[in-house]
Every structure is written in C-alpha cells, then in structure tokens.
Task: structure prediction
Amino acid sequence: MNDAQPRPSESDGPDTSDRPERSGAARSAQDAPVLTRQIPPPIEMVTLLGPRDELLRTMERQFPLVDTHVRGNEMTFAGPAGELEIIDSLIDELLVIVETGQPLNRDAVERSISMLRSQTIERPADVLTMNIVSNRGRTIRPKTLNQKRYVDAIDQHTIVFGIGPAGTGKTYLAMAKAVAALQAKQVNRIILTRPAVEAGERLGFLPGTLNDKIDPYLRPLYDALHDMVSPETIPKLMAAGTIEVAPLAYMRGRSLNDAFIILDEAQNTSSEQMKMFLTRLGFGSKMVVTGDITQVDLPGGTRSGLKIVRDILADVDDIHFAELTSHDVVRHRLVSAIVDAYDRDDHRAQRRARRAAAMDSGAGPARSPRSATRHTKSVEPSVAQEDPA
Result:
C-alpha cells in the first residue's frame, strides 16, 4: 500500500528526449482508469480495512489487476474499468454492512465479491445482514446467496427440500427458521426427526432406555437447538411437547398440525419412508427436508428416497427444491476443497464405469491379429525342432 507520488511537469527537470521509452506495463498502469472513494468520517478506516489491513489485503488478492492506494480516508484504485465497477459496488455494500453494526471479516468480503461478480439481483448487504433469530447476543443469518434463497423459499413454500453437501447450513438454517416461527407464534410446536441409520459402521448393542438408544442419532439436532434456545428452557419446552425430537419411525400414523417439521439426513430414507413422512403434513404446518445425496448410508440395493422424490414432486405446486453447493460451505475452508475433490473423484469413477460398461456390452474382446501372430511365431520353433531334417 504505497502512496502515489506526483509526476514532475515537463518544465521541471532535465530534457527527457533521450530517455528510453517506458515499458508497456508502466504505460498501461499510467493510462488505466482511476476510481477514488472518500469514506465518510463517522466510519473508522480500520473497520473497513481490518486489523493490520487484513481486509485490504483480501481485496488486493481478489483484484490482482488493480493498483490500490489508501491515504487517510481516501481510497484510490487504478485498473480495468470492469474491475473498478465491481470495487465501487463493493465499497457501497461494505459500508452498508458496517452501518448496520455488523463487523466485517475476510469471509464477508470474499463472499460479497463473489456475489457481485455473479451479477445477481440480490445485494450482498441484504444477504449478509439478514437476521433469522438471535439468542444470547448471537445472531444467525445466511452467509451466501444460495443460503438466502433457501431461507426465502422456506418463507414462501409449505414444503422445502434443502439438498447440498456437508457444511452448507441446511439443517442449521432450517432450525433457525423453526425457532423464529415458534417465537412469532406462527406455529405451536417444532418437530425434529431423522432416520436412525448408522453412518457406515455398526454400533452394536446400546444400553439404556429407548430414548438412550436413539439419542446418539439425534444428537446433531440437539446441538443446533442449543445454539438457538436457552439450554435451561429446552427441557421445559420438550416436557410440554413444544419441541419434539424423535426418530423417523415415530412419525407413522400421525397428523402434524400447526407445526414446523424438519426431517434431517433425508438421504438415508427409503422411498416408502419419504412418502410416509411427507403425508404427515397437517393444516397450518410447514416442512423442511434436508440431506446430502452424496452421503447415503442405506444398505446396498436400497435407493435413497431423497433421490427419487425430486423426480416425483418436481412439478408439484408449493414444493421447492433448494440446491446448495460447495460454494455455500460455511465450515473450515478445507471442507469446501474436500467436497470438490470428492466430487471430481466421483465423476472420474462414473466415467470409468461407463467405459467399462461399454466394453462389456460388446461381444467380448476378440484376439487381435498381432496377438495371433505372436502365438504363431511361438509355435513354429517347436515344430522345427521336431523335424528330423
């Protein structure tokens, strides 16, 4: 971050007619369009630039073709016009976020730039300042554009399917919407359920009561619930039936009215279980079904109900399918990279399987002329050795 020095006029200094011509890079930097932004005085520059200019460095990495200078509360950018247009919008969005009292961080800056580059109609500030529910000074809000669309879909539709990889906030955001609906008295109770399917390993015999046995399967729902509701009030709400956490098998035969119902890990349901769950919907209720179709733990040969339901209900009114991707992962940065790496490996495996199926569909590998020639040559010497001549 260097301050630009003014160039001396031609009358100042010696004749430069014999000086070598400047390089093309220097000329392009000199002739590049310039954007200057004055940051309003009430906003401290450290809130916009970050501690030790961390956020400024993030912007410089995201815009490598732009030369950035900061002096006081003035920011100057020189570079391609298209990049300057994005930076100009970015400064506006970051100022709105700061004015709402929300602290900026590297993640917010990078996600804002990504949304601006994708040229969506939604503003990054609208996405990053959307509050779903607050508890003990902590506010839960979407962090990506797809997450906001997912949350909006829950408001607009009766049944919503949230499908995406691990760490995209499918269950967490659905839980936050459920708590917000309960607080606003839009529903009378929250019902959280998931299939009791082991993730690739057998736990064997579990001691204790029935609730003790199913508790390990439902623990992720309890964890999310504790982030949004005071821990001391959860037992009271569960005792009163206001919040119910139960395995999917408990849903059969019930009619769920005036409830916010969440089915988690839906990729581990069979087609019959999915149909059973969806037909529990009662009057004044809302359903959210979440799952990751790349992590199915069902026994071999059992098709995932979540994979099938998309084909069956795709055209049904008031049912919405929200797709989340690795770009919406809000866990550690490596999680997104891991998800992408596994996706690439799955695509390679599918290509290999298609090639193998294509080869197997033929009449079988015929012996090539070359191999036949090699076979003939290997036999001729033995015949010659047996000839007494």
Q: What stands out?
A: The longest strand covers residues 189-194.
